[in-house]
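Below is a typical protein record.
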Amino acid sequence: MTPEEVVDSAICCGISTIAITDHDTVDGLVIACRYGQNKNIHIIPGIELSSYLSPSEVHILGYFIDIYNISLQKTIQQSRNDRVNRIHAMVEKLHKLHVNINSQEILTLAGQGSPGRMHVAEIIWKHGYCDTIVESFSKYIGDNKPAYVPKKTLTSQQAIELIRDAGGVPVLAHPGLTQRDHIIEDLVKYGLQGIEVYYPSHTPQAVEKYLEIAKRYNLAITGGSDFHGERRTGCPIAKITIPGDLISKLKQRCPSR
């Protein structure tokens, strides 16, 4: 969906505030914020940074960031270059598996956004090599699959510090998916300020667990639908909502305050 469509959809859902947190890019925010002016909605500028803490990725959300921060912009540009190189490497591996797709088709699909595996999966599916986008991952480009190429990322500490430097609040994304609760203590030492407690796949038991962890480490509580458009079914905008007072508490964590 375009940034404008995301804003319109959020308004139709009747919610007052939405955060747009694209992976490793803020390009859509400028459009969304301009379009959302004088409409009955507040848009929190955000980002979701891919980071690495051995042995796997950890996603760090950044809320209330200054999207024009020089360090952030420099990192985003480097990330895009790395992502483009990764697309070419995956396509080369796919060709050896007799999956004949074109890198440029993937980059065109991504447009100005961050090109990633989801775009590769869609092109594989569109060309009939798989019956579903999900199968593209399980058969070809999922972790440790034959066409998988590791992504160059920041360390988790670098991601947290970058968000703080950009005036934002760093939050651990979907801990129930990450399944690495033991690293939270280290992330807090690096400057983590929040944890995504409310998430579509979090069971009531998981919610209770992460509420307790938030209390233990004095972390802000957030929630989100992790909306990815039609590429991820079952998680529409506003599937998860949170009370407004949690947003106020989150904003109070901004370094400038």
